[in-house]
Records
---
Amino acid sequence: MGSKPPRIQPPPQSLPPTASATASLRQLFDSLSREQRRNQELLASLAFALRSFTNLNRFLELVPLVAARLMEAEGALLLPFHANGQLWRDHFQGTPPGRSRDVLRQLAGLNDASLLASAGEAGLVAHLDQVVAQHWGEGAVVGTSVVARSRQRGRLYVFGPAGGSGWSDGHRRHGQLVADLTGVALENDALLQERRRHERLDRQLSTGAEIQAQLLPDHCPVIEGVELAARCRPAYLVGGDYYDFISTRPQLQGRSREQGRWALVMGDVMGKGVPASLLMSLLRGMLRAEVLTGLPPDRILHDLNQLAQEDLAHSHRFVTLFYSDFDPASRLLRYANAAHNPPLVWRRQGQQVERLDAPGLLIGLEKEADYGCEQTVLEPGDVLLCYTDGVTEAAGISGERFEEQRLLTCLQEACRAGLGAQAILDQLFARLDRFVGSDRSLEDDASLVVLKVKEQAALASLPS
């Protein structure tokens, strides 16, 4: 039998032009889709790090890596700035480490003071661009600003091969997006540090408020024949207002102490907050030591002014102080005033209000200042009101001040109603709160001290 001739396969038919174009287009779409997914994953990883990072430096380490991959570059540099515009050298980042090390070292050696003084923010950026471009070449580097809240917070540089073909608009948009996320991270870290600083300050203020609360009398003493009420409302947690009740003979006890002479003090350190509170504490110690000398009020203020002169001069602050001593046996009130708001006295007999004042300069203003001494007798039913300017200077909703005349009128109303010392104090603060507004706080520390002579009080009978 004869063998069959071999079967010849027909040559493969070439694809038509339309099918070839479709395949090429599909390959292009697949490539673009893979690139898009890769870019989305890179940006998603950076966004995840942004919302979950607890260490700023760990986040900033990712920035040049992500920027270089997104822009298909050889490497990248990140140069953050402090909030004041100076280079934040501790957070300089670069990739790859070997090639970026030299330029980072060169940038870290730049002098902040000379850069900012000679060129300002724009000049600093231009100088950084110049240094980086000299290292890699003009065409190989693209620089993008890191901005947070309209402030320059750094520069992000991405570099490719020397003489490269440049960067597309898509690459530049990706670089700007990475820079914007970096700006958000820097601002978040700044806000976090500020919050922590405020938390530390709040703890310190709370401690200061506790100490100040211990320095101010926690209750009014018992003085024969009078009722007392007092309250200090600081504008902040701590303040510079000061009031005190000091026995001139602390060695006495019981009824003898109640019948002895007492010093009544109201003062105000200029300013608010912690500095004023510290000075108030210092003056309190000095004054309490002076009271033990038994000197009259004018001499007490004279000596206190000389003692406090140096401390007040260093702090550039002054103190107003009303000092008085009250003798329950004679109901004699002696007083001197270092430019403090003159206390008000409501006279029960005449149903009128008087102002108690005496000549004298601020404590700390002049070392050899002299002070006048005045005196008055408080009759049964009379009411003495001492206050600080935080009361009369309190602003209402319309911007009008509370002022002394309104305080005087409120005092008259409370006294004519026959209220006791504590009720008078409560009514005055309630009237002040209504004037200021329930949803608004005081601008300055406000303090009130009310002394009312009991109706049944009578002078001790003299021996025959």
---
Amino acid sequence: MKVSRLSRALAASFFPIFLASCADMAGGAAGDTSDIPAEILRPKKYSVGSGTPDNLAALAAKHNPAIAALRHRAERMEAQAPQAASLPDPMASVSAGSMAETAAGQMQGMLGVSQKFPHAGKRDAASRAARHEAAAIRAEADALALKVSEQVKSAWWDYYLAEKTISYTKENRELLSSIKEIVVAHIETDSASQADQLRTENEITLLDRNLADLRKLRSSAIARINFLLNRPVGSSLPPPREPSLPATSSLENLIARAQVNHPDIAAAQQRVDAFNQRLRKAKLERYPDPTVGITYAPVSGSGLAGSANGRDQVFATLGFNIPLWREPRKAMVREATAGIAETKALLESSRADLRYRVEDAYFRAKTAREVTTLFKDRLIPSAKQASEVTLTGYSAGKSSFTDVLETQREVLTYQLQLIKSRAELGKAIATLEAAAAL
């Protein structure tokens, strides 16, 4: 009889707990995602559409694994919030053996359940700190997306520069081949020397060497873009089209926008809030956490005393921890306070860095735009006209072959300077867009 009463009490108390634990273990095993196929994380071959800088930047934000890693990290941190807000698991205890005998009879055992209740505000502060940290990481992911976007656009402009330089160099080579035919005709009429032909062939050879270097630069730019887009090595890109370059806003507006909208600023502010919540929790650690429990003790009705009635005992318990050691709690406050100061300093550093990036990119864009207009509207048309006049004069025997080569080199040089300035303008605008979070 004694054993059966205690056994029933144990079964009633612990069997549901055991079943719940088994269910949690089974659910955890079913939700385990540690065996993610490696193919999901490997580069993927997909179409990039028109291949414009904006389109490539959007694809990089979607497929870049570093950005994905930060977003998963934010999810991981977000999952800590409900953990911090929950009560700790209740404690169950069993006592058996040679128990004390009371007036009601001898105790057969004791079953107890207790629950710890952290001081008001501790769980809320820990949960809020986790949520602010998750928000900071999400902002960091957005900042990384802007950075990757800038890198993609910069690499695209390198691709554009290499492709256009190859195109202009080929055009110049074809023109030199035509000039070579004119030189050969002049040699046959004794109006030109063999040296002019050799100089022409030498110029063509130099252009062939430049073309080989340019193809290498183009391949390097394509590889950089594929890396940022998480595409396989050797994936092709459509030829770069001439993109439109937007006008830049005023410097003051760009700086003000960067100070307000950039994710780096948001991340730092969220971390300040997270440390404020940690400081709040640290200050609350000076207060004890109560633990409330209830204990059941089955009592035998065959006690030694004649008054034994076998009435079971049920009683409540109240306990609490004693926050005796003050130094660890003081250290928690110092840690959170230092974290706030550290993050505020990083916030000011981010603001200063953004001001510099915006201002530097703004003036680079302004200079590149002016230089682009100068070469496009004035220098290149004049150089082409001079080249045509010199070549006509050479055919008529009025200009030297040296003048022909120099004017032709000048045209190519100006053309290359134009596309270089245009690429610099595109890179500067990409930096402005990333720094000002446009």
